Amino acid sequence: MIDGFTLGAPLREGGMASIFEVTHPDHSMPLLMKLPHLDGLDPAHIVSFEMEQMILPRLTGPHVPEFVAAKGFEAPNPYLVMERIPGASLLTRLRELPLPLDEVAAIGAKVALALASLHRQRVSHLDVKPANILFRRTPDGLRGDAVLVDFGLSHHGKLPDLIEEEFRIPYGTAPYMAPEQAMGQRSEPRSDLFALGVLLYQLATGFLPFGEPLHLRAVRHRLWRDPVPPRRLRPEIRPWMQEVILRCLEVDPARRHPTAAQLAFDLRNPEAVRLGPRAARTRRDSWLKLLERRFNRDRSLRTGRPAVTSHAAPIVAVAVDLREQTAPLAEALRTSVGNVLRTLPGARVACLNVLLDGYIRGDAPHDSAGRSARVQRLAELRHWAAPLGLEEGQITFHVLEGSSAAEALLEYAEANGVDHVVMGARANSMLRTMLGSVSGEVAARAPCSVTVVRAREMPA
Amino acid sequence: MGRARASVMPVLASARHRYQHIPVMIAILSDIHGNREALSACLAHADRAGATRYVFLGDYVGYGADPAWCLRTVMDRIAHGAVAIRGNHDQAIFSRNHRMNGRAAAAIEWTRAQLSPDAATFLKSLPLEHAEEDRLYVHADASDPEAWRYVTSPEEARRSLEATPARVTLCGHVHVPWLFGLTATDKCTAFRPAHDAPVPLSRPRRWLAVMGSVGQPRDGDPSACYGLLDPDAAELRWIRVPYDVDAAAEKIRRAGLPESLADRLLVGR
After folding, report:
1. Model pLDDT for residues A77-109, shown as the tens digit of each residue
2. Domain residues for A348?
3. CB atoms closer than 10 angstroms to residue A300
4. Residue A310 lies in a domain
């Protein structure tokens, strides 16, 4: 019994702490308590425990365990109590490698969304690996949101970095560690995208792209040695997936996806992935190329560069209402989106249209009437967007289905880590009174910014 | 009668509950330097933020055009329980031993003429440091407060931290926010605090926080800087408060003080 918490079964004996199941009369959710090892001489145990104690209470949302209580090293028995996520970590799935590719993409998208939420809160995890990834259970028994655990090596953009201050050698897990992290840089959120890339590679092929190096020198090989292209190990991997994985594994963080949300977007929208040379790669680079890289290494990795945030590379969802689309509103919407793109060239645009359930007759959404309605809507969306002149890969088109336009848009924004919704206001005030305002509901409930565009009415 | 009591009781109960749980929030203001506009903006901000205690880390005068007003304001806060420490510019008003650069010396000459003899007596009466619970308030390096040494590096912070038993030292003098920490493994680390993000001053580490300046910031941000310390949570926030910089600069020019003292306010350098 510690401070009202009743100790239950030991859950895990970690390298740095013991973890017990605990209960408390004030808390109904399952709980666990971390007790750091105090006998060892390694200050890493103490510092990483301090770091987690500092960061966890500042995090919110479904992608992290909820913080409950903590006692620091001023007490004889420091501890940290948090929500326990029932179920096993992704580690248990490593026995089944390689996983079905649909599942690899689904897991990757969930983890990427969890990382996006973390990065928005200014935290880089810096130890993304199977053991630190769990999933919430949904009522139907299917896997829900990914939950990231163990913030002992994490970096908070607005707090002192105790790890960096204390240790000259980089801390992390060797197979998953990003090259810049191996060089001692700890303030790059895209290091987490590299680690996720290693994980995706492992889940899809059954192999670790850089093996399991035992020494830091060997970890740094990934600065110049490229991995075997995943399709060479498992030919049924689609080119788009190889493109995405190898982009995550780029040595220069600036060549990876700009944000975790954009990576999640690619994993959920394979047709939106623009295929480049990475998708076509069939073998590793030649020794000549390696030698060149080895000795002309990009020095920016040592100095670091400012991290890109979702502000600079947002996912912008534009909801285009084709039914009552009048030319002036269509143009006003386009102008708004164009303005966003001019200031933020890293932005990606998802054009959305909602096909209401009632519109498709019958139960099957893919009957011939439904399909042709979708195809028609997609064509209209493309037509609307054509004047924007965007390249493939920067813009995607989606026809959503649902019984309520607002619900469908909100669900999409939530599931895809959308940063900004742009939509038109219903022009006809009679309709608005009868049906309610879709834009009003979206603006009130969206997890992100919403711009409501209205075409100025011409005087009669 | 019974009904009346029933309606009164819950109010009393909640008032007592509030009284017992008033959270302590300490506003820490340093290097005001006669800047009335900046000081009023910071005090108004701290009052709104629920500050229950005020600590002034010195340098009320020098550089700015409103030394008398700033001193009166600080004296008024002291009458209501605030703590005030003496800074080097305050000392220069009554002592000529401390060497200063030309602009600072010119400003002190001008300031001396603005102040009554009572003001000098008041400044003389201020302590060089003040200890409270596990905290120490001081203007500059605590290892020798009257030497007025800047703390701008981990080595200088270590010298200050090792000279006192305080777990948390709060000082000013530098005009740029810094946080130095002495770890359990005896390393001294430096951190440039972000605006308005509470930083935990976790135990058993020891910390030296440099507060930044209310009246003459020098970190490139012209807005006034002060600190809010929650001693129960052991969390410190550096707050930036925008204020009427143009008015403060214009007063400096009109007073005939060196022009550069006005210009630097506009850019926070």
Report:
1. 899 999 999 988 999 999 999 999 999 999 999
2. 315-453
3. 12
4. no
